[in-house]
């Protein structure tokens, strides 16, 4: 496959990129080069071109001149000439869009063979990709790297320039075959600001992160002595935060949270590594103010001897800070008001240090994937302090979170990324497959049912591939659509035919012609009719239910953690308010509130009907509380051997086949049972 990347911004070179030389020579280039380098290792990728804008500007060396290409292995860098000589910032690039499109099309026509697919980075590049799609029919995928609408929201104001950028983004999104995003927050919350993109075209594929230097890093004497100057008792566990001193990192709230929790103050030290400073007066205004507020909070609450805020550090000290906190039995905290990605949480994970993280942004994915800590609402100070306290005082959860972090490096790895990315590209360029007319439907839950035992999954997938023309594969999960898709792709499960996500709140069908998942609009409209989001959340607040992250709250699903109240008590409280809901508890931890009659089972019935299948043609498989409704309602239910929440002993499930094998092997055992009995 021949893949052509386009990235027009900044000063792009294949080696020794002068990062930081201009404001636009930054993260997106690093991402692109690391991606291309790993992508090129796959024998199926035979050529990678990277197209950028050339310029001959006296402020820069002449290596960036148009036509001055570079080659490294299978990767070639091409610099387009658009007729203007000077360097252009990202704000100015739009002036040259037309000329760049023309230069790009000329370059494409000069290639001995056209690229199979184009990958555009940033909206300007997307303009060129769209032109190539319209003129030459080459499909394109798009990575935004940052989005105008998100900036508009953060700023709270807009400008003509920002509106123009957003309009360009919309045009690019409209025709893209696939959108690659780094996090669920980007896929589900950030793209919600755009009208030209449906959820099914967006794929979450986490980028690679280099975490090697954090694994088994030792504590250094330097770091130990840097914090020792501040603390009376070095033996106490450390609550560690590492972030730039800017407002959105919410560091002052962390000091306040610590100060207000007397037991936490007593038991732990707080160490805040907030950039480097020699003179406060030399810092940028925002950073200076934040540091001053931090010091003022220490003074106000008389936290001397308990809080360390070292003046400076070397980059090489950072792994030792995580190591010091781990050795002390502490936690890492990222309380940012919004964290786009959350690299520090992965660093903490690789250092085997449990984390408490903001539930706004990328950390949702990290915690869901690595299970290395808990999410908290960053504006809820007592929740931040309580979470730190409970992890540090419960030895078993501390050990569980610390050891779970070890998976971070393999989950956030460019090779893992490329396996999924190349499969997506292949789906987009391979010949159209015909749609089978299925006679049966198998619906599986994901966590602890289809996934959980890789060996068993491989065997299941062999069986499924052989039967995919006769049996449609459906998924029914509590995860969101993007989370489900991301974990299935990471585990090598091919595109299912239908995904029921959010405990039945969304149904997406894989459209083989369009080559992406299309949301079931009829189902969506029905849900919205029966759901009073505000009233449900009002009652839940009055009942003091602890809320899951915002990303878990959907139309037709309000999600919390189990607490003091039983499901019966909660149901009664909702009944009293005249709100007809289902209360679904699973894993002794999650609590979902759904419209009465809603849930996985209603969605399975809808999906089967849409395929023209009666319920007798459906097998469903699950393991826990949120599978109960679909298992009860289905004539052919399979409960995998590793069931929980009492499923295997539930009288309402006496008709179910309870497998002796676990996970995917249990599903296969159940399927074979019904086939042998001749009932499916
Ligand atoms: C998944 C969802 C969560 C839900 C749970 C149980 O973990 O992310 O919101 O509560 O499943 O259904
Ligand atoms: Mg499950």
Outline the fold blueprint.
Blueprint: E1 2-6, H1 27-39, E2 47-53, E3 70-72, E4 75-80, H2 97-110, E5 117-121, H3 123-136, E6 140-143, H4 148-155, H5 160-175, E7 178-181, H6 184-190, E8 202-204, H7 221-228, E9 238-242, H8 251-260, H9 262-267, E10 269-273, H10 285-300, E11 307-308, H11 318-327, E12 331-334, H12 343-350, E13 355-358, H13 363-370, E14 373-376, H14 381-393, H15 395-404, H16 408-411, H17 414-429, E15 440-444, H18 454-467, E16 471-476, H19 481-490, E17 498-501, E18 506-511, E19 516-519, H20 521-529, H21 533-542, E20 546-547, E21 558-561, H22 567-576, E22 581-586, E23 590-595, H23 600-610, E24 618-622, H24 628-633, E25 637-639, E26 657-658, H25 663-676
Parallel strand pairs: 1-2, 1-5, 2-4, 5-6, 6-7, 7-8, 9-10, 9-12, 10-11, 12-13, 13-14, 15-16, 15-24, 16-17, 24-25, 25-26
Antiparallel strand pairs: 3-4, 17-18, 18-19, 20-21, 21-23, 22-23
The structure holds alpha-D-glucopyranose (GLC) and magnesium ion.
Magnesium ion is lined by residues 445, 447-449, 623-624.
Describe this structure in words.
By secondary structure, the chain is an alpha/beta fold. The protein has 25 helices and 26 strands. It has four domains: 203 residues, Glycogen Phosphorylase B (Rossmann fold, 3-Layer(aba) Sandwich), CATH 3.40.50.2000; 196 residues, Glycogen Phosphorylase B (Rossmann fold, 3-Layer(aba) Sandwich); 171 residues, Rossmann fold (3-Layer(aba) Sandwich), CATH 3.40.50; 65 residues, Alpha-Beta Complex (Hypothetical Protein Ta0175, Chain: A, domain 2), CATH 3.90.1070.10. An eight-stranded mixed β-sheet has the order 3-4-2-1-5-6-7-8, sandwiched between helices. Strands 19-18-17-16-15-24-25-26 form an eight-stranded mixed β-sheet, sandwiched between helices. A six-stranded parallel β-sheet has the order 11-10-9-12-13-14, with helices on both faces. A hairpin with a 3-residue loop joins strand 22 and strand 23. Helix 8 crosses helix 14. It starts with a strand and ends with a helix. Magnesium ion binds next to loops.
């Amino acid at each position: 496959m021949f893949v052509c990347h386009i990235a027009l911004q900044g000063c792009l070179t294949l080696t020794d990129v002068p990062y930081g030389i201009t404001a636009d020579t930054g993260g997106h280039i690093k991402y692109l080069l690391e991606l291309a380098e790993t992508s090129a290792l796959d024998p199926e990728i035979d050529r990678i071109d990277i197209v950028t804008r050339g310029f001959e500007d006296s402020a820069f060396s002449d290596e960036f001149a148009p036509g001055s290409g570079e080659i490294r292995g299978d990767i070639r860098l091409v610099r387009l000439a658009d007729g203007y000589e000077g360097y252009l910032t990202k704000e100015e690039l739009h002036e040259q869009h037309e000329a760049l499109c023309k230069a790009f099309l000329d370059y494409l026509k000069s290639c001995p063979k056209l690229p199979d697919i184009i990958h555009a980075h940033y909206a300007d590049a997307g303009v060129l990709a769209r032109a190539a799609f319209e003129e030459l029919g080459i499909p394109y995928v798009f990575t935004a790297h940052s989005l105008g609408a998100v900036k508009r929201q953060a700023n709270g104001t807009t400008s003509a320039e920002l509106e123009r950028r957003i309009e360009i983004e919309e045009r690019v999104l409209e025709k893209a075959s696939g959108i690659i995003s780094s996090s669920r927050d980007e896929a589900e919350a950030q793209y919600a600001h755009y009208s030209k993109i449906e959820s099914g075209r967006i794929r979450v594929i986490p980028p690679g992160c280099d975490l090697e230097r954090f694994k088994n890093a030792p504590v250094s004497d330097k770091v130990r002595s840097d914090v020792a100057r501040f603390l009376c008792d070095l033996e106490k566990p450390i609550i560690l935060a590492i972030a730039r001193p800017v407002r959105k990192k919410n560091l002052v709230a962390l000091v306040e949270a610590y100060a207000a929790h007397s037991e936490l103050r007593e038991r732990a030290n707080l160490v805040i590594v907030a950039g480097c400073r020699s003179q406060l007066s030399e810092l940028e205004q925002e950073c200076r103010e934040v540091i001053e507020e931090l010091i003022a909070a220490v003074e106000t609450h008389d936290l001397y001897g308990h809080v360390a805020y070292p003046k400076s550090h070397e980059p090489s000290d950072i792994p030792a800070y995580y190591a010091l906190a781990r050795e002390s039995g502490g936690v890492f905290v990222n309380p940012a008001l919004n964290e786009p990605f959350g690299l520090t949480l992965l660093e903490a994970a690789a250092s085997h240090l449990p984390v408490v993280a903001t539930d706004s942004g990328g950390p949702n994915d990290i915690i869901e994937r690595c299970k290395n800590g808990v999410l908290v609402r960053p504006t809820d100070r007592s929740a931040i302090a309580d979470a730190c306290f409970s992890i540090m005082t419960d030895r078993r959860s501390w050990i569980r979170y610390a050891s779970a972090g070890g998976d971070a490096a393999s989950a956030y790895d460019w090779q893992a990324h490329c396996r999924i990315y190349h499969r997506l590209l292949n789906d987009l360029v391979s010949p159209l497959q015909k749609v089978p007319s299925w006679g049966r439907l198998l619906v599986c839950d994901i966590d602890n049912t289809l996934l959980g035992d890789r060996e068993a999954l491989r065997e299941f997938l062999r069986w499924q591939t052989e039967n995919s023309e006769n049996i449609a594969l459906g998924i029914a999960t509590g995860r969101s659509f993007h989370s489900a898709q991301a974990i299935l792709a990471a585990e090598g499960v091919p595109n299912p035919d239908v995904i029921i996500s959010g405990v039945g709140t969304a149904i997406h069908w894989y459209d083989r012609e369009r080559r992406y998942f299309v949301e079931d609009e009829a189902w969506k409209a029905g849900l919205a009719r029966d759901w009073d989001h505000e009233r449900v959340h009002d009652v839940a607040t009055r009942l003091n239910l602890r809320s899951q992250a915002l990303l878990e709250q959907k139309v037709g699903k309000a999600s919390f953690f189990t607490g003091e109240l039983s499901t019966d008590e909660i149901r009664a409280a909702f009944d009293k308010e005249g709100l007809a809901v289902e209360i679904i508890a699973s894993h002794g931890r999650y609590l979902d509130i759904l419209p009465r009659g809603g849930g996985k089972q209603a969605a399975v019935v809808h999906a089967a009907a849409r395929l023209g299948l009666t319920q007798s043609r459906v097998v469903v498989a699950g393991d826990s509380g949120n599978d109960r409704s679909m298992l009860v309602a289905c004539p052919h239910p399979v409960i995998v051997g590793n069931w929980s929440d009492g499923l295997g002993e539930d009288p309402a499930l006496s008709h179910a086949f309870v497998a002796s094998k676990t996970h995917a092997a249990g599903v296969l055992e159940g399927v074979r049972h019904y086939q042998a009995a001749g009932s499916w």
